Amino acid sequence: MRTAPPERRRGPAMSAPTMGQAPPLGSTVRVLLRHTMEAYSDSPQALGWLRHHLERFDEPLRVAIAGKVKAGKSTLLNALVGEEIAPTDAGECTRVVTWYQDGHVPKVLMYPKAAQPRPLTIHRNRGALAFDLQGTPTDQVDRLVVDWPSQNLRSQTLIDTPGIASLSGDTSMRAGAFLTPDDAPTPADAVIYLMRHLHATDVRFLESFYDQGVAKATPVNTIAVLSRADEIGVGRLDALTSARRIARRYRSDEKIRGLCQTVVAVAGLLAQTGRTMRQDEFAALVALAELPRADMDGLLLSVDRFVRGEGVELAHPDTDARARLIERFGLFGVRLGVTLVRQGINDPTRVAEELVRRSGLEDLRTVLATQFTERRDLLKSRSALLAVEMVLQREPRPAAAALSAEVEKILAGAHEFVELRMLSALRAGAVKLPTDAIEEAERLLGGDGGSAAARLGLDPGIHPEDLRRAALEAATRWKRRAESPLSSRNTADAARIVVRSCEGMLASLHRY
Predict the structure, then answer these.
(1) How far apart are the first and last CA of the chain?
(2) What is the pTM of this model?
(3) 17 burial class (0-12, 13-18, 19+ CB within 10 angstroms)?
(4) Which residues pair with residue 100 across a beta bridge?
(5) What distance in Å separates the CA atoms of residue 261 and residue 446, rounded to the nearest whole number?
(6) Which among 12, 225, 351, 495 could bridge 482 via Cys, Cβ 3.0 to 4.6 Å?
(7) How far is the C-alpha of 422 from the C-alpha of 436, rounded, in Å?
(8) Are 25 and 413 spatial neighbours (Cβ–Cβ below 8 Å)?
């Protein structure tokens, strides 16, 4: 049994919308944890593990960012935080699991595998955060924990993981040991998986992270990101449009739908640069925009031509500045930034906002809010149930039988888990519904978010009375489907679960 991760700062005590049941799932699981702690009060290791998972309910959601080497994990993390706090080069720190959490003051602690934690010195390198492992080999470091004052880290702790399928076996092994450990549940509540294109390696990882057990990793806690979307189409201005089209195709793929919640296209570098753009970079874009269009188009044929300034008399920005610009923006970002300036946007703040808007970052943040934040209580409960199951299996005793039965009762009876099973079955194609019904069924089961408005496909600001009316109509419609003699048994079972979800919405809306 693994020791618990380092003590974490507590986040806001918030819970996802429930299905109108009492007590809520989170409360039920907390009670189970306390009962298990009482039964194992004589086992310091089990007691510490269970107490850690009880405390996790009051922490921010833990979201791991995973993917192959050079998928853009650290860059996306920086974009989500809005600061360059994760090293993005190929240095030693990118080969270590690193936690980024909200803190009162900037601080980095290194947790060696065979020694006490110790602080690391923080410094900046060209504006980006950097820290030195002080000669400790990366294979001797369990994790780094970075405390950083950030509003964006208060609701979620982000965990940067080493590259999967790395040429370094040790690096790839560290990522796998964290995300899919053999001897414990993963420390993460949810995962953002980055891929440049869908390769067999990506599918194998998603399959390894997925488990048929409802309390284990399921599509509901995994989002796939088509990263580095700006590189599709060799940096053309329509690159992101092409990337979004590819993401839509992946979302409709039955195999992928069974392994992750959704697929979003994001240009991570563009998002990071937009959120951290500096005045000198804007001035360089303005200078480039003043070049004749033919000269600028020639420069943007390749990175080498742009940095060398081939065929163009260009004093500003100079070679070093152009190299830094291409490192920060990429060809697509430079092309887009210059285009925005030529279109008359002469305010650096507006240019930065437009870069972020076009990057797809806000689409991802919306998905994170609806798919992860709204399911916070469910995801925390899933992690806690895995912890209880592990303790019961590792240290069997007379009290374990009753506790194991309680776990099974929660899994079978909590409608949140019933929804997960059905949602996964629908997306994997194990349960078939008519084409005109499957999209609505997935939405009503929470596939697009857990709020009543998201489930009903309505605007978030709609009046509660309109929500109640829509929920009642949906419940009536699906009840007819459940009772129809033309419906197969699987269809009728799925319809009854959807009806229960609608009834849960009606119960929760009755409070307003």
Answers:
(1) 45
(2) 0.83
(3) buried
(4) 146, 158
(5) 11
(6) 495
(7) 17
(8) no
